[in-house]
Sequence to fold (680 residues):
Amino acid sequence: MDLTALARRREVVLLVLIALLLAAVGARAPVFLTPASLGDVLTDTAILLMLACGQMAVILTRGIDLSVASNMAFTGMCTALLSKYHPELPIAVTLALAPLIGFCLGAVNGALIAWVKIPPIVVTLGTLSAYRGMIFILSGGASVVTHEFSRPYLDFPRQSLFGVSALLWIALVVCAGMAVFLNFSRTGRSLYAVGGNPLAARYVGIGIERCQFLVYCLSGAIAGLCGYLWVSRYAIAFTEVAFGYELTVIAACVIGGVSVAGGIGSVSGCLLGGLFLGIIGNALPVIQVSPFWQMAISGFVILCAVIVNSRSEARKGKLILRETEPPVPAPLQVRPETPS
Amino acid sequence: MRRLSSAVFRVAAAFLVATITVCGAASISQAQDKVRIAFLVKNLGNRFFDAVRDGGTEAAKELGNVEIIYVGPTSATAEGQIEIINSLMAQRVNAIAISANDTNALIPATKRAMDRGIKVVSFDSAIASEGRIIQVDPSETKLIGAKQVQMMADAMGGEGEFAILSAASTMTNQNNWIAAMKEELKDPKYAKMKLVTTAYGDDQSDKSYRETLGLFKSYPNLKGIISPTSIGIVAAAKAVTDQNLVGKVYVTGLGLPSEMKAAVEAGATKSFAIWNPIDLGYTTTQIAYNLIKGTVKGVPGDEVPAGRMGKVKVGPDGVVVMAEPFTFDKSNVAEYAKVF
Fold:
């Protein structure tokens, strides 16, 4: 009860911030608030939203997936080469294969973290480089460019259904699926327990390893799907696709109120965090300030959002402490020993 | 992180270097009486340098008894190039033509090579004057700037608003070209053309695309975009096509034919330019051959016979400047797309 009220509050704060941001941008460049322009922002942010949802599941279990951008780039290159050499393959094959390749890459992360017990940051930092290196081996360093793709490969995400592009529909399905999974499925709920209190989770019989493995697979599969969508959107696959993008994804989660200490976070928060970043990214070019200022402004605004957000959490947190009897210190161990 | 991944590239492709060095050594022992010219490029797997080699091979065929050796490190580092220079000295090649990864770092190695009678020529990216005999510049800043403004004027009919989409705001060559464009714009024949702004896409597809969308919103009357970077020009042309602005906004700048073929065919780009790597390789080979044969010394004022390129003049500081960048349009882009 307390927890949901808290979550709702954080999202309200973020929603107000987004409204303020839109108003500020609109005052300087009214053209930004036209429906067509806002549609562009949504389409542009769709990939980030999906990735943030996948990343959130990982962070919920006290993990982190730094390999998402490399995974995306590798899967994107795989699908691009497939489209170049087998243009006759139907788009459904690409759509099925992309998440599958991403899933496999994610499974490698998951297995190393859950069963070999290597810290997530070490594993995914390694695979971040490894997966990007694999692109170089796969493509020989060459790029796949616009005219080498098959028509359906490039056209599919832009096709519209009820006036909304396929890219947005996919994002909608992925995010809605994620919300249902986390809120209503037994496994989804147990992810919160694994991150919130691993010791307690193990005592109530939750398979921590299974949960960890699952979230990296999930994050990988989403990254794979996004890899295809990214390459198709920009019509070029090369070794530096989405270089450093994992930081943007993690930023979206943090702004959206996902706690890096695990156990706290919601899909709606993530979506708002992603949208916030998307709006900034799209607004900066139209408000006509010097590019030298743009980076500073973007960093400052993000910092403000995080500060306001964390303040609201802090106040709420103190209240909980006063109401509970003896304040129990949170367990410091990230991965407790198996009780024998 | 860039460091880490580049380390992985190096390891992953170390086999490639070994293979190529072995191949080079093997082919050398067969042809002792031939004139051997080594092309040492910035990095392997780069279509631009592959085309330079093709130009060199063309000149070698014309000259008869010349053999071209094509080598380079797998990632663009000066250390990798120094190692290769040492191995080329051991193989006793007659000349080395280098596109340098560092202006100064290669000098000790190339000086040693020159002491042993090997003629060292740099092309594309120069070595400082004491470390080589001649530098072949594919073009010069002023010509590159002027060419792009001319192409923009052709595409938009000589009047209206246009913008520049650059890479990062700190890149020296980009800023020099932009300064040259502004200089060219002072010519009264461009009086009706107005440069509205310079946007920076940081040589990333997504940011360049977003910046382009921002330009459309901020400047509804925009008629053209000049992008002097191969990633920016592809993203800008894709954005023009996606937003159904073909025929209203024209994109031009510096790009590779293989990456720009689709944009030219879609009509988003009428023409674009890049220095011709084939001519560059051809001329460099001709110059190196003449230095080996002793027909010229390579001092300023010399005129070097260069086959189909006519006579090229050695300017101050031993620099040979070729010509204005080569223009690509509907008539030739498909043909060159197969090359680089």
Observations:
- The two ends of chain B are 30 Å apart (CA to CA).
- The first strand of chain B starts at residue 35 and ends at 40.
